[in-house]
Design a protein that fits this description.
Elements (H helix, E strand, L loop, with lengths): L2 E5 L6 H10 L8 E5 L3 H18 L4 E5 L2 H5 L4 E4 L5 H14 L11 H25 L4 E4 L4 H9 L4 E5 L2 H12 L7 E8 L2 E9 L2 E2 L1 H11 L33 H10 L2 E2 L3 H4 L10 H7 L6 H8 L2 H13 L9 H10 L3 E8 L24 E9 L2 E4 L7 H23 L2 H10 L1 H6 L2 H14 L13
Parallel strand pairs: 1-2, 1-4, 2-3, 4-5, 5-6
Antiparallel strand pairs: 6-11, 7-8, 8-9, 8-10, 11-12, 12-13
Helix pairs in contact: 1-2, 4-5, 4-18, 5-6, 5-15, 6-15, 8-9, 15-16, 16-18
Length: 469
């Protein structure tokens, strides 16, 4: 019987999705699932809903709840991390303060000032969990779902805890590309690797044939470049050859940004146009430019403010109770099933570039993507079975793709160094190196913005004390 802990289980929907995914596998239906959160009322609510599900389906699974990290981790084999340290209160600062400086992050949880400060306030929680895991469940695997993915995972590697980071952008984007080009997804295969939210589809095949030319033709026709006068700087939206705009799981709408990147750099990457536009300097310099490239505004902070209502929660639970148990396309439960049963599966995981979870940089097992730094966090295809997470070695990225990844690896490194040392100058340097911040703000503006972010986050960042930049 597997013992699985979900940390941050007071969330609205995702912890229940994890429970459903786990229980969809018959071999895992007798598992003990421990739900842990520092908020007792919220984790007890999740526990009550999970028990309703178990009872409705007549399953032997045991659901327990706790606010104690030690209780959750003792004897546990798998630790799923879904938390958001600081919650909505902290997240509002991540987004609203940069907006006051003219830097509009539509999500702000992975790169840029929002992602950096989310990482900094989350770092102590990861270190506490990792140190407890080494005492209470030293062989356990940490399965991280919390953003900023690469920084969080990179920060945990030094502790020696085995950790893999999971996202769904590879699954969503590969399906979207197949549909856009009119192909049967079940007949497609692809190669995809890089860093989280900016991994690159370097190959795409259908029935073994290269269909990238077909994808490029379809995407270029459906999502032409906005046009305008280079001299005046005015930008307008060019007419599209198709009215098609897709929405996969609420993430993918209109793909002008990613198509524009492919038009210049040759390949399509994994994060949606709205979110991916935050990672590069070209698309969010002005409201007019944003509207030209992203016709439908997608504001994740606003969604968070309105989505978590009791009525929506109840409808979500009723849907789960009345639907057959089916696994989502998330990888977490598939990993646990493969490791428990030795059934082979392939996932796209965020792992050290020097080897699989638990590998050591002092004796590296590999250099998975050789034109990215060996100590960084990369996203690659991994085989999973009883032997655990076994990453593939895809080789070097196309040089232009590696160059874009390197911009963010540099920011991630500075942020991780800031967390390790408590040095606020490293935080300032990390934000200053962010491509979008550099495209919009001067260095004095960035210094002022970072100071405001430190002041707003003071209660979540005690390790930095009172910061003067």
């Amino acid at each position: 019987m597997a013992r699985i802990a979900i940390l941050g289980a007071g969330g609205f929907a995702f912890p229940l999705t994890m429970v459903v995914d786990l229980l969809s596998f018959p071999e895992l239906q007798s598992s003990e699932i421990v739900l842990m959160d520092i908020n007792a009322s919220r984790v007890n609510r999740t526990g009550r809903l999970a028990r309703e599900l178990v009872q409705a389906k007549g399953l032997p699974a045991r659901i327990t709840t706790t606010t104690s990290l030690e209780e959750a981790l003792t004897g546990t084999g798998y630790v799923i991390v879904t938390w958001q340290v600081g919650g909505l209160d902290a997240y509002e600062h991540d987004v609203e303060i940069p907006r006051r400086y003219g830097m509009d992050q539509c999500v702000g949880d992975t790169h840029g000032p929002g992602g950096i400060f989310r990482f900094l306030r989350t770092w102590p929680a990861y270190i506490k969990a990792a140190e407890a895991m080494k005492r209470l469940c030293p062989d356990a695997l940490m399965i991280n779902y919390a953003n900023p993915m690469a920084m969080n995972c990179w920060g945990v590697y030094d502790t020696g805890v085995k950790v893999v980071g999971l996202c769904h952008s590879v699954q969503h984007t590969s399906r979207m590309l197949a549909e856009m080009a009119g192909m049967d997804y079940a007949r497609c295969s692809y190669a995809c690797y890089g860093i989280n939210h900016q991994a690159w589809f370097t190959e795409f095949r259908c029935d073994g044939r290269d269909v990238y030319p077909r994808i490029r033709k379809a995407m270029f026709a459906k999502f032409p470049s906005p046009v305008g006068s280079a001299r005046s700087g005015k930008v307008t939206v060019a007419p599209s050859a198709s009215k098609l705009a897709v929405d996969h799981g609420g993430h993918y709408h209109q793909e002008t940004v990613r198509t524009e990147i492919m038009r210049t750099f040759g390949y399509f990457h994994t994060e949606s146009s709205h979110h991916g536009s935050e990672y590069v300097p070209w698309f969010r310099k002005s409201p007019r430019l944003v509207r030209a490239y992203i016709r439908k505004r997608w504001d994740y902070l606003e969604l968070c403010r309105i989505i978590y209502t009791p009525d929506k929660e109840r409808r979500h639970v009723e849907q789960l109770l009345n639907s057959p148990l089916e696994a989502s396309e998330e990888y977490g439960a598939r990993i646990i099933h493969a490791m428990e049963t030795d059934a082979k599966t392939v996932i796209y995981g965020n792992v050290p570039n020097y080897g699989g979870p638990g590998a050591s940089l002092t004796a590296p097992a590999a250099h998975l993507i050789p034109n990215l730094p060996q100590d960084c966090c990369v996203e690659v295809a991994c085989l999973v079975d009883r032997n655990g997470i076994q990453p593939t070695c895809p080789g070097p990225l196309p040089s232009q793709c590696a160059a874009m990844n390197m911009q963010h690896v540099a920011v991630q490194r500075l942020a991780v160094e800031a967390a390790r040392t408590g040095d606020p100058a490293k935080v300032l340097q990390a934000v200053a190196m962010d491509p979008l911040a550099g495209a919009i703000l001067t260095l004095p503006q960035i210094r002022s913005m970072v100071g405001d972010l430190f002041a707003a986050h003071r209660k979540w960042l005690p390790q930095f004390g009172r910061v003067k930049l």
